[in-house]
Please model this.
Amino acid sequence: MKVLAANHINKYFYEPEKFQVLKNISFEARKGEFLSLVGKSGCGKSTLLYILSTMDTDYEGTLEMNGERLTGKTQDQLAAFRNEHLGFVFQFHFLLPEFTVLQNVMLPALKLGKYSAKEVEERAYQKLKLVDMHSHALKQSSKLSGGQQQRVAIARALINDPTIIMGDEPTGNLDKKNSEVVFNIFKQIAHENHQTIITVTHDPDFAKGSDRIIEMSDGQIISS
Amino acid sequence: MNIRISLQIAKTHLLTKKRQTLIAMLGVTFGIAMFIVMISFIKGVNKFLEDSALDATPHVRMYKEITSNHPSLIDEVNPGAFNVIHHQLPKNELANIKNGLQIVANIEKDKAVLGVSPQIGSQVFFNKGPIPVAGQIAGVDILKENKLYNIKRRIKSGSMEALLSNSNGILMGSILARNLNVKVGDKLTITTPTGNLKLVKVVGIYGFGIQTVDGVRCYANMSMVQEILQKDKSYVTDIHIKMKDSQAAIAFAKVLKNQYKYETQDWAEANSAFMTGDKIRNAMVVIVSITLLVVAGFGIYNIMNMNVINKMKDIAILKATGFGGKDIVAVFLIQSIIIGVLGACLGLLIGFSLSYLLSITPFNAGDFLDVKTFPVIFNIKYYLMGLAFGVVTTILAGYLPARKAAKIDPVAILRG
Model:
């Protein structure tokens, strides 16, 4: 079952001069698939990921997720869609430093408003247990190490049970051991929870372990 | 949009940056406190001046205008012709209001009128020792006059009623009494402009707290003043009227003028200098208050702007995880509103305390005004205004940075 379809995506940068970053990119992702986007720096893989993330709306072509056409929706509609169906893990962990670990994980769920605050807290503990961070739940998130923060960020990405989880070099800033931990969590999510994972990565071991590798060069997909 | 979660984020932001929050708040606090002190004090001064001016002046005064600007005999005989008269003099006419007592009785019937007092006014000299001191004497029915000006409350020594039982008694203004060095029971001579002398006895000393009254005026019985001026029992030169509502006096003065064909003057006209002062002071309050609040507003704008710049990463995360533009606006606007409301409330409290301190600070205005401390008005209206100003300013100052926050492009920040 396909959960994501990108059709004929073209993207241009206008600064310093007009330059085509993505050239007619089309691909699909299936439910429960663990996908890696690889390629040299500047090949456009991150740019593609941010278009898929719905945060970048300045492109040509169409984007569909969960059978819903996302191209042409307003920023607020896209934000609501992200809240419910997408989870993000970034390279530089990106937690809100003033909040506790638990609050960080809870915020997207409180925003969604599907569950009561008490249920949200319970679910947040579950997700933290999944990444083995539940014992740090009440710590200030700025007090954690990089690897720990990245695990919390994964728990946050999972809180609303999204269809797709996207990662922008989620292990790029981590040591070998922590990278493995993150990789195993991703694998578990994809194969046991059947959530789709799309990550941009430079790490060849990480890419090799995933279900499918999409290689990009010069704004085009050269193998998938 | 979920207000509760925006509120929670706003609260966390404010509490983690306590010092910054406090500084932003103090800006508003200072502005509002100064606004409260200024408006309470200046409105107090205005009211005090108005009250003391109104206390001593009638709402409407009716009098006969003595002027040389009357049609000459030649004009009457030879109307329309080119008549030239040099140095025309006033006619030898009486300064009285004909049927004055009748008019008083008529006006008294009007329901809007609080009291009417007929008077005979004249310039006189007071002689105590070799030097004559100039002043005025007003022949009044003291009970009617009391109804208008509350003379009884203003008596400093002696008594008002003593005037009723003493046909040669006078009530003297306190400053005049001090200048002449007379006390209750002392006798002195008064001289009228036409040269009549009369020995009178001071039976009471009063003070309005206004130099132009206390330094010149004496009250006496009507019959005594009529006697020294050698006039008959119906001779009246002025009619003073107090209304129940002072604002109604301005229209009533015109009605009276048309009805009785005598000059009338309302209190606003008589105190136009005070009124102009009022307007200038009110304008000053507005200008300074707006300045203070604008400065406080810029303070908040700056701090919130910095806040938004510092929180760009957080805003990007919130947007990535599904918070919409409205949520982000709410997060930052709520912070401004909290700062505004708390700052304004603290400002009201400080403003009230300072106003209170001012209201008990001794202040000696000399003989010019009867005041012991600074006049300050405590009116809930000003406090509500201060609160509203504070909140509106902070909302305006907070909205621009909040909107800027909502417009942040998360991709640019997350990609680094």
Remarks:
- DSSP finds 17 helices and ten strands in chain B.
- Chain B touches chain A through 28 residues (CB under 8 Å).
- The longest helix of chain B spans residues 18-56.
- The CA atoms of residues 365 and 371 of chain B lie 7 Å apart.
